Amino acid sequence: MNWWQALILGLIEGITEYLPVSSTGHLIVAQRMMLGNLTGQEKAAADCFAICIQGGAIAAVLGLYFPRVRQMFMGLLGKDKEGLKLVFAVLAGFLPAAIIGYLANDWIEEKLFLFKWVALAWFTGGLAILAIDRWMKQGGGAKGVELADITIKMALMVGFAQCLAMWPGTSRSLMTIIGGLLVGLRLSAAVEFSFLLGLVTLGAATAKKAVWPVHHIAEKYDHKLGGTLLMWDTYGPVPLLIGVIAAAVSAAIAVKWMVGYLNRKGLGVFGWYRIAIAVLAAVLIAMNAFGLAVG
């Protein structure tokens, strides 16, 4: 991986991580187009890279939502009741993904990280967005509650919705925003809770991938290298640094734009975008049957 490939992947990660379009799906396709059909150590290193550059997106949200994060920290110190309540809500929302992700991770990576399943998830998610957008424009969710009023039960339900995003192409932010709306949060509150829940979920996934022994790699590595060491051994530190910085800058811009856009226009554009790229992906898959494009 050279510097410009790392830059492109970082930009894709940052732009798509918090938009309801699926960063994982976009990264799978981008990696396949730029790096080819990788196997062994190279595939493991590329997969780790795609996870670890999420650190840049996490840093962007930490900066943008620092007052809320600080409130949660003060809650842990016993100095802010609302902040402590939000801490418990975020942890409750994270719990389903922590358990199900741990149990199903290997199966998901083996069965669902394929172009055809990503395309199907894009299309299905697009239809879901259009349905939710229509519901909202007809008055649905107009009486939703603010983030301060979220309950543990509501947070758990959002957490189970987040688990559906383990299917690559579905989008973690899509499922948590829709989940938040369906349990009774206002759109602005659902979006903010999605971002805060993402700090914990993405942070845990990034930390795990960075230090956990990597499976299914070349036999000479004896399955003992953590993700970061594997990437450094394969690419060196420069691509990772470039990817993280690009993800941080682009995520900050994308989040600020998204919050303003959703308040003015709603979710509809993301639904149409997902359907469009699903159709494009289906065309590429069909061409692949004739040897004309990667699948």
TrEMBL record:
Bilayer topology reads: Multi-pass membrane protein
Q: Which UniProt keywords apply?
A: Antibiotic resistance, Cell membrane, Cell shape, Cell wall biogenesis/degradation, Hydrolase, Membrane, Peptidoglycan synthesis, Transmembrane, Transmembrane helix
User: One Pfam family this chain carries?
Assistant: BacA
Enumerate the subcellular locations listed in this protein's record, separating them with semicolons.
Answer: Cell membrane
| Membrane-crossing segments per the record | 44-66, 86-105, 117-135, 173-200, 238-259, 271-294
For this protein, the record's InterPro entries field holds: UppP
Supply the enzyme class, top level: hydrolase
**Could you say which EC number(s) this protein's record lists?**
3.6.1.27
Q: Which reaction does it catalyse?
A: di-trans,octa-cis-undecaprenyl diphosphate + H2O = di-trans,octa-cis-undecaprenyl phosphate + phosphate + H(+)
The record's GO molecular-function terms, alphabetically, read: undecaprenyl-diphosphatase activity
The further comment given in this record reads:
Bacitracin is thought to be involved in the inhibition of peptidoglycan synthesis by sequestering undecaprenyl diphosphate, thereby reducing the pool of lipid carrier available.
Task of the protein: Catalyzes the dephosphorylation of undecaprenyl diphosphate (UPP). Confers resistance to bacitracin.
Q: Which family does it belong to?
A: Belongs to the UppP family.
State the HAMAP family in the record.
Answer: Undec_diphosphatase
Please report the name of this protein according to its UniProt entry: Undecaprenyl-diphosphatase
